[in-house]
Amino acid sequence: MPGMTEQPRLLEGLDPEQRQAVVAPRGPVCVLAGAGTGKTRTITHRIAYLVQRGLVAPQQVLAVTFTARAAGEMRTRLRALGGAGVQAQTFHAAAFRQLRYFWPRVHETQMWQLTDNKFRLVMQAANKLGLSTEREDVRDLAGEIEWAKSSLIGPEQYPAAAAAAGRETPVLPEQLSKAFAAYEQLKNRAQMLDFDDLLLHIAAILDDQPEIAEEFRGRYRSFVVDEYQDVNPLQQRVLDSWVGNRDDLTVVGDANQTIYSFAGASPKWLIGFPRKYPEATVVRLERDYRSTPQVVGLANQVIGAARERPAGTRLKLVGQRPHGPRPDFAEYDDETDEAEAIARKIAQLAKRGVALSEIAVLFRVNAQSEVYEKALSDAEIPYQVRGGERFFARAEVRQAMATLRTAIAHGADEEDLPATVRSVLREVGLTDEPPAGGAARERWESLIALVELAEELTAAEPDAGLARYVAELDARAESQHPPTVEGVTLASLHAAKGLEWDAVFLVGLVEGTLPIMHADTDAAVEEERRLLYVGVTRAREHLYLSWALARAGGRRYRRRSRFLYSLVPDEHPAALPNKVKQRELMSRPKAAKPHCRICNAALTGTMDIKLGRCADCPSDVDEDLLSQLKAWRSERARQLKVPAYVVFTDATLTALAEQRPLDASAMVGISGIGASKLQKFGSDVLALIQGDRRDTR
Ligand code: ATP
Ligand code: MG
Fold first, then answer.
1. Same domain, 274 and 326
2. Ranges for the UvrD-like helicase ATP-binding domain (predicted)?
3. Atom of ligand 1 nearest to the CA of 34
4. Nearby residues of 234 by Cβ (< 8 Å), 6 or more positions away
5. Residue nearest (by alpha carbon) to ligand 1 atom 20
6. Residue 493: what are its φ and ψ, rounded to 5°?
7. Strands of the sheet with 281-285, listed across from one edge
8. Alpha carbon separation from 291 to 14, 83, 351, 655 (Å, rounded)
């Protein structure tokens, strides 16, 4: 049997537990394990193994994951293992493909268009209801509608469901419910679908149309889900429809990496899997193959400090790689300093032989990217933003692809594919040596990445010609799977999930950014902590954590993230100055554990925490300011047609009148004030407080 001789290859390089999951018979399999333990490797090997043994046909397997890049990577890994033909896609891409196929059979029309401007529809809905159409407000509305749809909640159920889930609603729940209904109506009238509709429709078709369900289940027989901890109710519903009453389902995940619960995801399906399928093969992995013991140690510390963790997720990772450098912590005066210093460190790493494509700068919000783009450009270091999903949209790449197509039409020489590609791309400006830097360098890096892809393809398929190569490019463009471009990756922590680099810089680690300002519940803060854990565990060897005390050129009022307090070694220089600064900043408390501003006792009660002092400690409230704030609140509440407490609760107003924050950052230090409130009311409140100060001077 030809397969028999190759079989050991797939089991080599796996530890006994990984192997157990790989060779488990078709049926339910669950791998619960921490970052870097080889979950993704295990499932790709399992798929390839089942295919190789003839236990399933490649076309019968559907593997899903959460980002286009992760899906692309899985396809590449599968192809290398002999699993070409297996579908590895995101939930949305898989649903889109299925819906395109089945829709005409059910509705006897062409499938509705996927909306390219959901924002506009939400804005129209808001406008119709007389709600604010400011960009930020519309975005909040859209986010809330998305949460509802992914949680399988319709407009009518929204108010009750939002209350039950403790959502901080951007407008009154009843208003949101109406806006949601109006949005659906506008969208249906325009015969448009949004992303969530793809999933809703395919689930409905499979549930309501037995014939289609039968056809579907005849075609797909084996399902695999990576990063299962981040599945939301809607995706789970689709998965249930796919699987039907069968049980050929392999799931892998790490509850400690749940980072999408703000959008409705929950690890409960992952954790509950062994209970749902008592006969499942359940495997736990603890060896971390990705990172050095130094990085693993820090990861264990970060997640070990979590306030609460789902039962059965207390995994301790054990690093398998040789020792490496200790994680580096650094504090800077402002963001520009931070970015410039990091550009210098990157240049040093590169000098020591670390490839730029093996370096990532990860941040909490995309807005943080800009200062790094500038610093890297100035240092003439090529980079790509967010994993380069938009690679195929770049002008030089589009131009290159057009030129390659023309070359095929002219029957260009196909003796040696990489050489042919190289010579064709000379026409669009590819030179032998890279230009010094800037835009020209970035262009060059895109083109050379295309040449390298031709080399990769030739290695995998020695007979591949230009036409095959261009087909590969098309397939990659469609599934947003860019080739590796030599350059530093700039990405958000969310986008970095599942990926790894030799060197990782976690930047901008300050209060208000990580945890993010609007994380104002314990659960939200814990999700931010998991994001840091995801970030730390992306690094193979070099890990740098940094923060800056001021925005570019601003006042130094920022504080390093509370998650770092116990991580920065005490003897470390970065820990010392900051401690002193913290003491100076005692008048603006909001540390991990809140303390009374008057007597410094630890605070536990919600009201005490809100006030920032013990209820029985003397109040230093500015009564004048408090009454001004109250008057302002009634006025605003009247304008917005909401009850006063929706603007600010009494406790928050009292805290404002006591602490008299003088800038936005100090304001968000007050419990009950998150990003959206700051946005809406920040300037009003600051004006009142500043006015009050002038009066009393
Ligand atoms: P994450 O939770 O971050 O998605 P993961 O559990 O999916 O991590 P993988 O990406 O599959 O982890 O593996 C992490 C790294 O360890 C990869 O580089 C992989 O090739 C390597 N690896 C996994 N298992 C082994 C093994 N048994 N021997 C050597 N290397 C391994
Ligand atoms: Mg993985």
1. no
2. 12-292
3. 2
4. 149, 150, 151, 152, 196, 199, 200, 203, 264
5. 41
6. -60, -35
7. 87-90, 61-65, 222-225, 249-253, 29-33, 281-285
8. 17, 27, 22, 45
18 lines ligand 1 (CB under 6 A): yes
Mean pLDDT by 10 residues, the chain (697 residues): 52 93 95 95 95 94 89 86 88 93 90 86 94 89 94 95 89 95 95 94 94 94 96 96 95 94 92 95 94 94 78 73 94 94 97 95 89 90 74 86 89 81 92 77 85 86 88 82 84 92 97 88 92 97 95 78 81 50 40 60 70 68 82 88 84 83 78 80 84 48
Using CA atoms, how far apart are residues 504 and 69, in angstroms rounded to an integer?
A: 18
Q: Which two tokens stand for residue 531?
A: 């994001």
Tokens 């890297």 found at: 376
∠ Cα 244 246 251 (to 5°)? 95
> What separation in Å is there between the alpha carbon of 32 and the centre of ligand 1?
13
* φ/ψ of residue 590, rounded to 5: -175, 75
Q: Are residues 69 and 218 in the same domain?
A: yes
Tell me whether residue 326 is in a domain.
yes
The verdict on 352 and 257 lying in the same domain is: no
| Nearest alpha carbon to residue 490 among 365, 348, 363 | 363
CA distance 504 to 427: 36
* C-alpha–C-alpha distance, residues 265 and 150, integer Å: 8
The answer to whether 611 touches 681, Cβ cutoff 8 Å, is no
CATH number at residue 518: 3.40.50.300
Q: Are strands 501-506 and 359-363 parallel, antiparallel or unpaired?
A: parallel
Tokens matching residue 628: 């001004």
Report the distance separating Cα 452 and Cα 655, nearest Å: 60
- DSSP codes, 189-248: HTTEE-HHHHHHHHHHHHHH-HHHHHHHHHH--EEEESSGGG--HHHHHHHHHHHTT---
Give 496 Cα–ligand 1 centroid separation in angstroms.
15
Q: Is the CB of 13 under 6 A from ligand 1?
A: yes
Residue 34 labelled as part of a binding site: yes
Residue nearest to atom 18 of ligand 1 (CA): 290
Q: Which residues contact 360 (CB under 8 A, 6 or more apart)?
A: 488, 489, 490, 491, 496, 499, 501, 503, 504, 505, 538
pLDDT score for 574: 58
Domain termination site, one of 244, 261, 285: 285
578 and 491 in one domain? Answer: yes
Host domain of residue 143: 116-189
SS3 598: coil
Q: Is there an atom of ligand 1 within 6 Å of 41 CB? A: yes
| Residue-level pLDDT at 108 | 84
Instruction: Determine the residue of 12, 18, 20, 41 to mutate for testing ligand 1's pocket, defined as the one with the most ligand atoms within 8 A of the Cβ atom.
Output: 41
Is residue 178 marked as binding? no
Cβ neighbours of 115 (radius 10 Å): 17
559, 591, 623 - which closes a domain: 591
Q: Is 44 in the pocket of ligand 1 (CB under 6 A)?
A: no
Separation CA 149–CA 232 (nearest Å): 10
pTM above 0.85, yes or no: no
| pLDDT at site 437 | 64
